Amino acid sequence: MSDNGSPNHQKPEDAGQSEHLNIKVTDNNNEVFFKIKRTTQLKKLMDAFCDRQGKNIASVRFLFDGQRVQPTDNPETLDMQDGDTLEVHQEQIGGGC
Amino acid sequence: MTKRNFDDIDFVHDGSGDAMDIDEQDQLSLSPVSRLRIPGAYPQTSTSDAQLDVASTPIYSLFASVMRRAPAIDYLARLCHNFTRKLYRQQAVRAEPISRGDGSRKKIFLDAGLTDFTQPTVAATEELYEAAPIFLATSHNSVPWPTSPSTPISTRNSSLSAVTTIEIVNPTVADTEGLYQASPILLELPAPATPINNRVRQLRSGGFQDAAFKQEVLRVYHEQIEPLTPAQFSASLRSSTSSVSSFEYENDLSELPDAESTPLVPRKTVTLAKQQNVKEFYKEDPVYKLLDSYIEDIMSSPGSYYNESIYDSPSTPDSPLRPVFQTSPLSIRAPKFVDDLPPSSPLPRGTTESVGFSGVPADTWDLSDEENSLEESLMSQELVNEFCTKAVVASEESQAKKKNTIQQLVSPLTDEESRELEALAAKYKYLSPETTVAGSRVTVQDLKTLLPDLFEGSQLAWLNDNIVNEYLTILTNHEKAASGFKHKRGGPAPPVHNFASQWWTSIQDDRLKMTPVKNWALRKQLGGKQLLDANIVLFPICQQNHWRLVAIKPKDREIHYMDSLKSSQHFIVNKVFEWMESELGPSLNQAEWTITQQQQSTQQLNAKDCGVFACLNALVLLRGEAPQRVVASEGMEEARRRIAWTLIKGHTTTEM
After folding, report:
1. Cα distances (angstroms) measured from residue B230 to each of B103, B178, B184
2. What is the value of pTM for the model shown?
3. Least CB–CB distance from B449: residue in A1, A89, A93
4. Residue of chain A with shortest Cα separation from B445
5. Which domains can be identified in chain A, with CATH numbers?
6. Which CATH entry fits the domain spanning B467-632: 3.40.640.10, 3.40.395.10, 3.10.20.310, 2.60.40.1840?
7. Measuring CA to CA, which residue among B560, B554, B548, B561 is closest to residue B580?
8. Cβ B462–A94 below 8 Å, yes or no?
9. Is the confidence at residue B279, as pLDDT, over 70?
10. Model ipTM value
């Protein structure tokens, strides 16, 4: 979490922060690289990845260093650096068998 | 014709002519045949062989003499036979064929008993029938005995009849359900402690010492056994697998502030989900106390009974008992209320004497008015009691309220909350599954797994990772906030933390070691030795569709493995150690860590609630309470609703 408390819904056209990041998204089989702005909502990235891999977004989880990524998060709120990795996990269910 | 028949054999050696004839002919060294033809020896009408008197031949007489002794010889032979039989009894290995589901057959060794194969007796079959209920008693089935004990069966078969009867189990079930289910039960049959034949023999000879066993065998033997319906059969299967102990709720109140000093004998009660809030009126605690206090009043003198620390202590001016004391017309320790006593001579405490009655202090006697004084004093005594018990009731009620909230781990939703939740469910259940519900961090799909009835999800009702992770996050966040903790880079370690359930799946690849999670702890100020500063770190783990919880208490150097199904913990605990080693390096001293071996978690009653138990076990640990507080119920509906409500609200609701 960033300490300056930047709002989640920051518009991409926000001036000074238009720096781009390279982010790797991997689900252990595939690796997809994305280049996004620091302030872009990660929903875009997640949707793109799911479209590309043919996954249902409701059944995958994006994690960054053990922290679940919400669609409304952006790289800045997650304190991401250039070259960081997002892990993609399948939904787990359990009840006991 | 003077032909002899067999009946005359007895006369052969009577010294009459025949024997003489043989001697004479022997002297003549004639063959017996030629001798037959000697005229005059026998009055014969014909010499043809067909008409020979066979009985008169020496061979025949020899044969006849042997035959005459036949019973004796036969007897001797039998005696010999019986004797050898007694010496050499056949050793038989008893085995029981087991049919497996795939049709293969296998034999299971039962015992090596002495069986009597040579002589089929009724006793032998009875023995078997007496032995067989032992099998049945240990099996989970009650299957009718196929044939009555009086049915004659050959000995060789009788040794196998126990086997055939147990096999009968299969057709009964297989016929009605079309399944071959009985084989696992057969495998569960424990081998008898002593060879059955010996036990039965002991039983029959009356020398059996274990009367209880004898009774049990007789009871089972005489019991009317009815065939199980398929439903009952599967029910019995299920009940045999689920632990009965999970029904028992230990009413452990030892951590309450007003706990009794003597250890409570744990009361075992069955609590049903719908009734756990209902109290029988006569079991209300205040009534207990009321009765106790009343009896105690009668038994003891009021002077010694009323506790001065309550009544006279100025430190409790707002105690509910205070006004009672002031308004009570009679108090032995406040002589100002008693008009008869001079104020200059207050009666010292503890010197009250009983007059006539125990329980009535001497100073309540008014000698000036003897007729009414006793009555008055008794009445006033009652008044005091009444006031006091009222006060006790009042204080007990407040106590009872406190107890109630502690006893229930999660309180059920209030009516209003339930209505709101149902309204939300109606609003969201048909929306697309990835929609987040009411601005929370859980989606419609997540809630479908938690509340399948409300959100029209799969009846499997298996919790998904989002529910477990988010719920634990809410709990730990509450705990962090309560201790004023905030995650700050380079800051101190959090008191509590929960890792996402993906932690477990990430460390599964042994080639990668712990690299996928190497930043996880670091991000949360738990990396390296900082890990040891935390109180509790939770790891929800979903392995093979089963949720469980590993909690490490780094400060206490403890590892708790909470599993509502009692699976093996070694694999998981070893992995946790591996991870800790990767974090702590060589400073990890495994010897100082204790792993709870006994499964502490309450056991689930079905095959769908383990996620709920993982959540509740986390709650129990964070609250520092006994794991027995988690009460199992079918479906855990109340807990599910409470979890859902907390998840939607995004903060704890009554949990902490």
Report:
1. 21, 10, 15
2. 0.48
3. A93
4. A58
5. 20-90 (3.10.20.90)
6. 3.40.395.10
7. B554
8. yes
9. no
10. 0.82
